[in-house]
Specification:
Structural class: mainly beta
Order of helices and strands: HEEEEEHEEHEEE
Strand content: over 45%
Number of helices: 3
CATH superfamily of the largest domain: CheA-289, Domain 4
Number of strands: 10
CATH architecture of the largest domain: Beta Barrel
Helix content: 10-25%
Number of domains: 2
CATH topology of the largest domain: OB fold (Dihydrolipoamide Acetyltransferase, E2P)
Distance between the termini: 25 Å
Length: about 150
């Protein structure tokens, strides 16, 4: 209930003996709910919206390292060429070396319009339903943040 209130919404609960309970959550129209894949880079977690995701592949670490060190890092999958980019460098963090303890790493294949990118992350934590609300003007201009 506190989380709903923080978002500017309300929670109503009705209970009828023998019939059960009904919960009604009201959220402002400026919010939307969607599904996202949650990725980890270092101690940070990032959400990629599901509608933009074409798929997820696990690439052997050595092969991925070779792709990332090439002149134009890319990965061919399903007839499409995906430009490879480490999520850390995309959000302005130091990408560092790929984790040695992982034999394969997840690459999330994202397509938005004509752009195709393979997002490299240290770990894929799964999927979640997320609440999306507009960001303030202070960070609205930052590339890749919404």
């Amino acid at each position: 209930a506190n989380e709903v209130k923080k978002l500017g919404g309300s929670l109503l609960m009705e209970t009828q003996a023998g019939k059960g309970s009904r919960f009604m959550i009201r959220l402002p129209l400026s919010l939307s709910v969607g599904h996202a894949v949650i990725l980890r880079v270092g101690d940070e977690q990032y959400a990629l919206p599901m509608p933009t995701i074409e798929g997820v592949v696990r690439i052997p670490r050595e092969e991925l390292q070779q792709h990332l060190l090439s002149q134009e890092p890319s990965y061919l999958y399903g007839g499409y060429k995906y430009r490879l980019q480490h999520l850390a460098s995309f959000v302005g963090l130091d990408a560092g070396p790929l984790p040695e303890e992982e034999p394969t790493l997840p690459v999330v294949l994202v397509r938005a319009g004509e752009l195709s990118t393979g997002v490299v992350a240290e770990e894929m934590l799964g999927t979640r339903e997320i609440v999306v609300k507009p960001v303030g003007p202070q960070i609205a201009g930052i590339r890749g943040v919404s």
